[in-house]
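Note to self: keep these together.
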Amino acid sequence: MTAPEPCIALLRAVNVGGHNAVPQKALEASLEAELGVPVRHYLQSGNLAVASADAASLGGVVARSIHDQTGLEIAVIVRTLPQLEAMHAANPWPDAEARLVHLSVFDGPIEAAAVESVRSGDWAGDEVAFVEGGAWMRYATSSQGSKLGNHVLERRLGIGATARNARTVAAMVDLARTLPAADR
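Structure:
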């Protein structure tokens, strides 16, 4: 059996504005019991650090657990700790105010032509930079009402995605580093 490795499971659009309520503490306890590995959540917005022996199937396991507990169909995007560390390190605006810098994590590959349609867009002072498995967005003043956002990337790229601000990404990297790993 493969030893558990730190992974990050990002739940899309949960506990936002009273919609798609997924109690994080209950989900954490349920997954720990089912998987027999440490699970930690960060905030109430769908951020889990999980020591998983099978990162490829973790998203399905988390989604199934959510459905069993709540009846909701929630998309779950998983990255291993090294993948999220690489995305975090690739932030082109590490010194910008964290609330103005968001990482959109994609659920699959994207087409080069679609990337170009986003790069060439007029984002009214906002910026986007693509990284392996996602894109960083920097907002000039606020993500609220911006012409650029996770929903725009999903539509233009034809993928599912979920976004977190730079502070949350850093916190998830730190939290996942506290989980056991085979060779750390």
